Amino acid sequence: xxxxxxxxxxxxxxxxxxxxxxxxxxxxxxxxxxxxxxxxxxxxxxxxxxxxxxxxxxxxxxxxxxxxxxxxxxxxxxxxxxxxxxxxxxxxxxxxxxxxxxxxxxxxxxxxxxxxxxxxxxxxxxxxxxxxxxxxxxxxxxxxxxxxxxxxxxxxxxxxxxxxxxxxxxxxxxxxxxxxxxxxxxxxxxxxxxxxxxxxxxxxxxxxxxxxxxxxxxxxxxxxxxxxxxxxxxxxxxxxxxxxxxxxxxxxxxxxxxxxxxxxxxxxxxxxxxxxxxxxxxxxxxxxxxxxxxxxxxxxxxxxxxxxxxxxxxx
Length: 315
Prior knowledge:
Structural class: mainly beta
CATH superfamily of the largest domain: Glucose Permease (Domain IIA)
CATH architecture of the largest domain: Distorted Sandwich
Helix content: 10-25%
CATH topology of the largest domain: Glucose Permease (Domain IIA)
Largest sheet: 9 strands, antiparallel
Distance between the termini: 19 Å
């Protein structure tokens, strides 16, 4: 458990924690050491109200390129807002409390970032809490240099397309459309064949390794079927220079999936799709070195490792 989680779950202020343990800074905190909490009589700015029963990150460690889930258990309804660094958290009612899902950018510099939580109780009482959280390096590998069509790395093309792509996944639908763990978007045995993993650092046409892989690539020849991994609504279905023929599905709560380099798009904007529904065919359009499916999972406007969504249920 991080100092942030320990303080939040115990309703204490981090500075009281440091004083109790003769610490000057969070950088002195060492894994495996035993520390002590101030007495329960501690009150004042930074303490959580009694109606907040518990708070926890899942997974406990925040990592580049991963999905962070913040679960808060409460005794009554309240209004919550919060943030991690520059990320604004959106909370939704869930399991006798609230939950927020947020992606951590794969290129975010590892280190300490401010995390905050604010709330308004049913009687109008307000509270605020702030701590630091540590974001770890994701340990992503470097792919061999790639040679692609120069048009697909020209900033006059990539910048406008990236801005358009980002604008598609910013809206947050308050309705959760999916349930359970996501299923693979490709048929077996291709669901275990990954020519390139998420987060790997990339060089194009002799460039520096300034790029990273924003999705998970699945093997497959032109015409292999692509399926929706969960329920959702199609919010984009068109052709782009870098991503080729592409589709984006909104699953609600700020969670999106995206599919690039398709040979055929078999859905339209506005379509409501079900888990396992055919939505397109694998191709080699856009910035590619051969046929494959580039699959993205986007949470809170940030691309995250899709494998995590195939291996566990969020939230």
